[in-house]
Amino acid sequence: MGMGTILIVGAGGRLGGVVARRLLAEGTPVRALSRTPAKLADLRALGADVVAGDLRDPASLARACAGVDAVLAAAHAFVGNAGGNVPAAVDNAGNRHLMDAARAAGVRHFVLMSILGTRPDHPIDLFRCKHAAEQYLRASGLSYTILRPTAFMELWAEIIGGPITHGQKALIFGRGVNPVNFVSVADVARFAHLALADPRARDRVIEIGGPENLSLLEMAATIERVTGRTTGRRHIPLPMMRVMGALARPINPAFSRQVRTGVLMDTQDMTFDPGPTLAAFPMTLTRLEDVVRNQYTSAVAVDGARVGS
Ligand SMILES: NC(=O)c1ccc[n+]([C@@H]2O[C@H](COP(=O)([O-])OP(=O)(O)OC[C@H]3O[C@@H](n4cnc5c(N)ncnc54)[C@H](OP(=O)(O)O)[C@@H]3O)[C@@H](O)[C@H]2O)c1
Predict the structure, then answer these.
(1) What CATH number is attached to the domain comprising 277?
(2) Which residue's alpha carbon is at the smallest distance from atom 35 of ligand 1?
(3) What is the pLDDT of residue 304?
(4) Contact 65, 3 (CB under 8 A)
């Protein structure tokens, strides 16, 4: 494809790691940014130029963008807490600093990892911050692609499947009957790769989801069927989640954010139809069954980074 150096912010993350490996495998130079570069020794061994940086430190972003062809912004602070690495500082201001640095460095194209459902009045701060970053990017003058995936399948297969594979009851957040769209990180990585390389993705918002909408109970049943282990369920009741989410808010915003997101997953419309996106960009989407088989029953797959990459 003949791309120059791609800067990946969040290269140590689930998605960033898979995209970095895809690019390195085809011979595209990768610069991998992390707050803790020592954690990216595996990517360095594969040929990545690993650099230290922080979305909250604009000078580090200017250094990281120098000589770069395109940027993939794949970080987030969903699990971050007050006073430090929070969505306002990372997903909003941090991504805006990165866009400023990219523009100043003359970067050809900027790909922003957003999330499905962003809006300015969303009850969860992460979604509001992603919305602000999207708006800033559209007005930046940079050539851009905004990717809005649904929830990552590998992450949820781990949350629900971890206990099952250890012989414990699956932990279900709420009733667990609401259909939710999950997308494989491998498929999101394909779209990120396409967004970096394909001119058809220029100045577009691409919403990405998996092939099926599944409730958490259906996910647990699929994991049990594929792994051959049946352990039962333990539910955290919805009213308890609502109380925990509200009480924790001033004390532990990150925990509160996760619990309140869990409430939304159990009560809002979380379905998605990948049809329109696939009509523009044909692709065979990965099913949960395949992810679970890869994650839990294959001898080589030890993390999401190897799934379908
Ligand atoms: N997980 C999901 O279900 C989901 C759903 C929709 C969209 N997304 C989006 O997809 C992208 C990738 O998500 P993921 O689940 O693959 O991420 P992840 O595995 O949780 O990794 C997050 C990454 O963010 C980086 N990061 C956090 N704070 C940073 C900072 N201040 N400066 C620089 N980097 C920072 C971390 O890098 P270091 O620790 O190495 O510095 C880490 O590699 C994110 O933008 C996320 O919002 C995720």
Answers:
(1) 3.40.50.720
(2) 75
(3) 41
(4) no
pLDDT below 50 — which residues of the chain?
300-309
Does 123 fall in a domain? yes
Total domain count, the chain: 1
Protein residues whose CB sits closer than 6 Å to any atom of ligand 1: 9-10, 12-16, 34-36, 39, 54-56, 74-77, 85, 90, 94, 113, 115, 149, 151-152, 155
Q: How far is the CA of 229 from the centre of ligand 1 (A)?
A: 31
Q: Identify the domain containing residue 92 by its residue range.
A: 6-150+185-209+272-285
Residue 67 lies in a domain: yes
* 3-state DSSP assignment of residue 218: helix
Asked, for residue 237, whether it belongs to a domain, the answer is no
Q: What is the pLDDT of residue 80?
A: 81
Mutate to test the pocket of ligand 1, among 55, 61, 76, 184 (most ligand atoms within 8 A of CB): 76
pTM of this structure: 0.95
What is the structure's pLDDT at 242?
97
Q: What is the pLDDT of residue 307?
A: 39
What's residue 270's pLDDT? 98
Residues 225, 307: Cα–Cα separation, whole Å: 19
Q: What is the pLDDT of residues 265-302, one digit of tens each?
A: 999 999 999 999 999 999 999 999 999 999 988 654 44
Q: Return the half-sphere exposure (C-beta side, CA atoms, 13 A cut-off) of residue 35.
A: 13
- Which of 57, 50, 96 is closest to 73 using CA atoms? 96
10 CA to centre of ligand 1 in angstroms: 5
Look at residue 256 and tell me if it is in a domain: no
Query: Amino acid identity of 114?
Result: S
